[in-house]
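Lab meeting minutes (informal)
Scribe: AK
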Amino acid sequence: MIGLMTLLLKVFACFWYRSSELYAKVIKMSKRVKRFVIRSFIAIEIIIFTWIYCFGARGLQVVLHLYNRNQIIAANCSAYEQKIKALEHELRDWQQHKDFYYEKYAREKLHMAHADDQIIFINN
C-alpha cells in the first residue's frame, strides 16, 4: 500500500515537474506494477476458475454425485430386469402347466385340500 502511494506521488510529481529522469523511473516502476497486477489478476482468475470447476453448481462434485447416482440406478434396473425375467418364466410355467399351478396355489394360499387329504395345522 505504501509502495502504491509512493508510486502515485512520483507519477504526480513527474507530470507536475515534467522531469525526464523522474519520468523514466516512474515508467520503469509502473511496468513492474503492471506486471505484478496482471500476474495477480491471472492468479486470482485461476483460483476462481478452479473453485467453480470443482465446487460450482455444475462442478466436478456434482458430476461425480450424478455418476454415482446413475450407477445405483443402473444396478436397480438390472435387478428389476432379473425380477421381470423370473416373473415371465413363472408366467410361462403357469400357462403351460395350468392345472398343477392352480392346485399348488389353492393348497398353499387358500388352504384347500382334496376330500381324502389330511390337513395338520401347527401353531407356533
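Next up, CB showed the second protein from the same session:
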Amino acid sequence: MINYILAKERIAHLNKQVIHYGYQFDLDTFDILSSRHDLTGVLFYDDSYYNHKNNLLVLVLIRDGMCVSTITCNIRDSCISISSKTKSEHTGNKYNLLLHAILITICWSIRENEQRVSMIKSHAINVASEALLRKYFDVIAKPDYVFHIVCDANNTKKAKTVFDIIINAKCR
C-alpha cells in the first residue's frame, strides 16, 4: 500500500509558488492523472518492468495548461525506480531536472507499507542526463547509467536549491 498524502500536500505548497508563472505540478496514480491531463507523448513506462500501471505514481509538470514532462515512479522495497520523459519540443529546459528535484524533496513523505522511501533509482539515458545528476546531487553510480540518489537532508537541500534556480530562471 502506497501512502502519498503528505507528498501531495507538499506539491500543493510548491504550486502556490509557481502557479502565477504558468507552472503546475501534479502527483497521483496513473489512472487518476490520465483522467485529468492529456499524457500523450509525455508518459514513459515499460509494462515488462512495471507490474501494473495502476500501481504507479506519476509526477507531472504542466506548463500553460499542457503536460510537458513526467516522472513515472514504481515504488518497491523503500525505493522509487523512476522513468522520465519530456515532450521533444520542451527538451533543454531542464524540466526533467526540475521534476527530479521535486521528487527528492517529497520522497521522504511517500510511504510503502508504512516504510519511508529512502532511495531513488534513476536510469540516465545519455551522457548529458548523467552529467546533470552528478552535477546537482550526491549519487551512487551503478553499471549501465543507473544512479541511486539517497533521500537524505543533504540531497533535499541540494534539490531545493535546484528547484529555486530553475524556477527563478524560467519565471523572470
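CB comment: Helices lie at 5-18, 30-36, 95-106, 127-136, 153-170.
No objections, moving on.
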